[in-house]
Structures are given as structure tokens and as C-alpha cells.
Fold:
Amino acid sequence: MTTTLDIRRSSPLGPHVAEVWLNRPEVRNAFNDGVVQELSDAFRTLAQDGDLRAVVLGGHGKAFCAGADLSWMRAMADYTWPQNHADAARLAEMLWAIWTCPVPVVGRIHGDCYAGGVGLAAVCDVLVAAEGAHFCLSEARLGLLPATIGPYVVKALGEQASRRYFVTAERFSAARAQALGFVHEVVAPEALDATVAEVVAAIVANGPLAVRACKRLVKDVAGHEIDAALRDETVRRIADIRASPEGREGVQAFLNKRGPAWK
Structure:
């Protein structure tokens, strides 16, 4: 247990799963510079764990993340431009640490998911939300903009929806987020943990190196022209993994109607 995060490397979901929980329920898990640094450190450490297959990111208490902490915002009100730049750079590094985690990150969303909290959700690979969860890109209400989280939110929410919600700062429901393709599953609150567990189990059942390669593949091909270079790269990648010990084991297990060794 750390001050602002509850990090569990030995998860009930399995030995190859880590859980990272925002642990400031008294402020609806609003983040400050301490949370930003701890999340960066946690995900950099997890990225080095070769036995890891999935990470669950959630929040204790009544909300996933309500955005920036009010005390932190009061302090920032007096920052100089260089101080603001350095502060934003630390947030950008935190988002990048989660985004580049080599294994899938499953976001467990409940309650409020506001501002920077939407950014945290956007860097997850799979989002499971409870009915009643709400999202809001509220920065424009304060005369600000969701700049640091913007690249990830636009990718996850979509350009057209971002055009609206960046400029209106409207709240939108979990059901709306799912309709827009931002959230993958919306379930009753009492089913949230079970659904997260099902998603994690599906990931862990697959080849560990294949899952990492699949996550990387999506990021590397998304938005790119399907030209000769991209086609050649995908040919190389499938040849590499077919010839790998894990690939050979998986195919042999399938052909021989047995479970693969990684299970």
C-alpha cells in the first residue's frame, strides 16, 4: 500500500495479473502531483515484469477519478509558465507510461470519470463501466483545454465525438460512451468486478507473448496507410511469431487437442 495508490501484484485474479487502484476516496480519487508520480513509477515498474499478463486499473470509493485535486489546482493557479509546462510534462509522462505498458490494461470505471480521469480511461485497452458511471471533459468550463490527455481521448472516443464533448463540457453516460465506442462493456454495478474478471481471464488464457504482440500490432497499424511497407511488416511479424516457441506450442496444442503450456 502506498499513500495514494493501492498496488497489488498478487491479485485474486491470478498470479500473472496486477491491480492498481487510485486510493483517495475522500476526494473521489482526484489526482495531484503525488498520484501522477506514483502512477508513472508503478507502470514503469510493471512494464519490466516479464511474468505480467494484464493490469486492472480502478478506483476505491464512490468514483473512478474526478480529475485534478482542488488543492493542486489552487497551487497551480499561481504557477509561472515554466512551472505549468513542467507540471503538464509530468502528467504527459504518466499517461505515456500507462499507454506503453506492454500488457493489456483493463479499466474498471464507476461513478465519476472526469477531465484527467477520462484521460486515464482513454489509455486503457479495455474499459468496463458500471451503469450510472458518467464521463465529462470539463476543462473548457474552467477556461482550460484537455490538451495533455487529448491525443489519447481522441483516439479512444473518436474525432467526431471529441469535437462535441471537448467544446461543450457536457456529461455523458456510460451507455453513451459505449455507443460511441469508448467503453466496451456496461454492466450493473454489482456485476462490475465479475465482468472485469471475465475479461482478464480471457486475456490470461491466451499466449502471453502473443497478447503483447497483439497489443503492439493495433497501435502500430492504426491510422496508417496499408502500403507495401506495412504489408511487409505484418508478414514479418506473423512469420516471427509462427516460428517462436510459443507460436509452435500453441499450434501443436490446438492440433493435438490439448491445452497449451502457458495455461
Residues 81-99 form the longest helix (19 residues). The first strand starts at residue 5 and ends at 8.
